[in-house]
């Protein structure tokens, strides 16, 4: 004969399970809304919850086994007790495991979908915050990477268009002039030869920029040496004296007489040359200053500067603040990219900051 309380025992177990589940979910809910929203905290909460659950279920399991033995000759009662025992023994870790897996499964599913989109060259994909710090930190870095890839893709597409234009313009002019002279429509004059020479020089300059960028990315075999920076910069400015005078720009030096840096002379010369050419072409400045102090070389002007949104991209390949395609203000945008490559080859770093007015390049020189 099976006692009446045997049939109420499953209800008792179910009630306990519901109470424990509510406690666990309440704990996890608090963690979800807290500032310490970590995957490790949630998993730890589940592990901690398993302790009280075990303490509650041990006497329950013992009671079930006792009843199973007492009802050994009653098949129905014995099977029911054993079934409940197995349900408790297997169901508890399964429920806790599913809760733990849920914290990992949803972020991973979103991440896999983003990777699949990226494989299809979809650079607009963005990962949403999941409310779990470890995943959100990784997702933020992934989104930043996607943003950079999207920017690089835009630059790559712009390169095709820009290079095509820069090559097509002088070639079209040269072919038109040569064809007309070959057909006898235009006479061969010094003026037309000068036009052809100018366009050929434009092509040569384009090739020179591409070649300079390629070389800047290659390891430099030149040996560094001690350079008296003030004397070096004085000679450098003298080299650009005619260009500076033509633009109405005054050059100033704020460098101590005994200031010495250990660097590759050719790399430093190319860095300063590209910075000066950038200033001459785009700055519309009246003054340019070179200053050295505390392992920093500052190259600044008081010109029109650049928009704040352009500052992070000035050293990117093929980036141009001025999107026009004119020869005087356009170009491929490789000059400052070459500067960065040369600086990094020396173990230095270069940044651009607003000069108020103008633009300042900060070259951090290793000690």
From TrEMBL:
Keyword set, alphabetical order: Kinase, Membrane, Phosphoprotein, Transferase, Transmembrane, Transmembrane helix, Two-component regulatory system
Residue ranges constituting the HAMP domain according to the UniProt record: 102-154
Catalytic activity of the protein: ATP + protein L-histidine = ADP + protein N-phospho-L-histidine
Gene Ontology, cellular component aspect: plasma membrane
Superkingdom assignment: Bacteria
Transmembrane helix keyword on record: yes
Protein name per the record: histidine kinase
Localization annotation: Membrane
Gene Ontology MF: a single term: phosphorelay sensor kinase activity
Chief location bin: membrane
Gene3D superfamilies from the UniProt entry: 1.10.287.130, 6.10.340.10, Histidine kinase-like ATPase, C-terminal domain (3.30.565.10)
SUPFAM superfamilies: ATPase domain of HSP90 chaperone/DNA topoisomerase II/histidine kinase (SSF55874), Homodimeric domain of signal transducing histidine kinase (SSF47384)
Residue span(s) of domain Histidine kinase: 162-367
Pfam families: HATPase_c, HisKA
Gene Ontology biological-process annotations: cellular response to phosphate starvation
Transmembrane portions of the chain: 6-31, 43-60, 80-101
Species the sequence originates in: Reticulibacter mediterranei
InterPro entries assigned to the protein according to its UniProt record, in alphabetical order: BphY/WalK/GraS-like, HAMP_dom, HATPase_C_sf, HATPase_dom, His_kinase_dom, HisK_dim/P_dom, HisK_dim/P_sf, Sig_transdc_His_kin-like_C
EC number: 2.7.13.3
């Amino acid at each position: 004969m099976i006692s009446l309380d045997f049939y109420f025992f499953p209800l008792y177990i179910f009630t306990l399970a519901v109470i424990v589940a509510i406690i666990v979910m309440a704990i996890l809910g608090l963690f979800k809304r807290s500032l310490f929203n970590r995957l490790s905290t949630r998993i730890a909460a589940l592990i901690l919850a398993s302790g009280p659950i075990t303490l509650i279920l041990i006497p329950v399991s013992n009671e079930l086994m006792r009843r199973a033995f007492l009802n050994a000759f009653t098949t129905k009662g014995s099977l029911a007790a054993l079934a409940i025992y197995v349900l408790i023994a297997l169901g508890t870790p399964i429920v806790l495991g599913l809760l733990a897996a849920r914290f990992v499964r949803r972020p991973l599913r979103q991440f896999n979908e983003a990777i699949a989109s990226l494989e299809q060259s979809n650079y607009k994909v963005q990962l949403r915050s999941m409310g779990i710090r470890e995943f959100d930190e990784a997702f933020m870095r992934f989104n930043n990477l996607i943003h950079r890839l999207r920017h690089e893709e835009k630059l790559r597409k712009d390169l095709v268009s820009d290079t095509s234009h820069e090559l097509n313009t002088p070639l079209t002019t040269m072919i038109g002039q040569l064809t007309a002279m070959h057909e006898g429509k235009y006479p061969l004059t010094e003026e037309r030869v000068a036009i052809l020479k100018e366009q050929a020089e434009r092509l040569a300059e384009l090739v020179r920029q591409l070649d300079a960028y390629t070389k800047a990315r290659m390891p430099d075999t030149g040996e560094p040496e001690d350079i008296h920076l003030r004397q070096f910069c004085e000679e450098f400015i003298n080299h650009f004296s005619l260009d500076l005078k033509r633009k109405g720009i005054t050059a100033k030096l704020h460098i101590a007489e005994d200031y010495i840096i250990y660097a590759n002379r050719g790399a430093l010369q190319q860095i300063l040359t590209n910075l000066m050419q950038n200033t001459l072409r785009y700055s519309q400045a009246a003054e340019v200053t070179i200053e050295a102090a505390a392992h920093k070389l500052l190259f600044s002007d008081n010109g029109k500067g650049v928009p704040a949104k352009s500052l992070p991209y000035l050293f990117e390949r093929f980036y141009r603040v001025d999107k026009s395609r004119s020869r005087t203000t356009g170009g491929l945008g490789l000059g400052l990219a070459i500067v960065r490559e040369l600086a990094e080859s020396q173990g230095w770093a270069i940044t651009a900051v607003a000069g108020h007015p103008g633009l300042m390049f900060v070259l951090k020189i290793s000690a």
